[in-house]
């Protein structure tokens, strides 16, 4: 990497947790300069504006989650085990290098809904990619005769994602991690019920 690329990557790495915790509106240039130790001019010498930093920070945070999923999925053999990865990662998020501030899809989707079209688009792309991953896993499970062929893969994928994200939101709002564990038991049941 060139010096400029290294600086850009450094800015993204240091500001990504702040954007994930405080959101786009709550993150100031002072937050960015404090986190990086760089001047405003140095940050904006590498990025056109705060929007560009926020978009890159979202990509960085999402890539951290995707790396966790990829590593955990590779350890599993059956479709059921692979689908349960999505439950286990969130229930045991403290044992993974999770982005500071929690799930970037949930955080960004809620904040950017009416305020930041670029971030909203990235959050939606993250959801759709997640949905597609689950649909493909279910498809492989059906082909391997592990999953009942009468299930609707898209419906199951959306239900799993909505329940996980809703569980995270309830746990964050209440401060009660046991609520998340209870909700994840419901996701686990949905997955177990798919198996023939």
TrEMBL record:
InterPro entries in alphabetical order: Homeodomain-like_sf, HTH_TetR, Tet_transcr_reg_TetR-rel_C_sf, TetR_C
PROSITE patterns xrefs: HTH_TETR_2
Keywords: DNA-binding, Transcription, Transcription regulation
Transmembrane domains' residue ranges: none
DNA-binding region boundaries: 28-47
Pfam families, per the entry: TetR_C_13 (PF16925), TetR_N (PF00440)
Domain HTH tetR-type positions: 5-65
One Gene Ontology term of the molecular function aspect: DNA binding
Superkingdom to which the source organism belongs: Bacteria
The name this protein goes by in its record: Transcriptional regulator, TetR family
Organism: Dyadobacter koreensis
């Amino acid at each position: 990497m060139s010096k400029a690329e290294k600086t850009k990557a450094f800015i993204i790495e240091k500001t990504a947790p702040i954007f994930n915790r405080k959101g786009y509106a709550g993150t100031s240039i002072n937050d960015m300069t404090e986190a990086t130790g760089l001047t405003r001019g140095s940050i904006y010498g590498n990025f056109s504006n705060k929007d560009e930093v926020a978009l890159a920070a979202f990509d960085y945070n999402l890539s951290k989650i995707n790396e966790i999923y990829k590593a955990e999925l590779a350890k599993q053999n059956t479709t059921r085990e692979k689908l349960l990865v999505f439950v286990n990662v969130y229930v045991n998020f403290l044992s993974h290098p999770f982005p500071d501030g929690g799930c970037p899809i949930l955080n960004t989707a809620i904040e950017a809904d009416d305020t930041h079209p670029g971030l909203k688009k990235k959050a939606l792309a993250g959801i759709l990619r997640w949905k597609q991953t689950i649909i493909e896993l279910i498809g492989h499970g059906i082909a391997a005769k592990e999953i009942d062929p009468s299930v609707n893969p898209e419906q199951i994928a959306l239900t799993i994602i909505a329940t996980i994200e809703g569980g995270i939101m309830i746990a964050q709002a209440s401060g009660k991690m046991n609520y998340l564990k209870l909700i994840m038991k419901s996701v686990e049941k949905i997955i177990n019920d798919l198996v023939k």
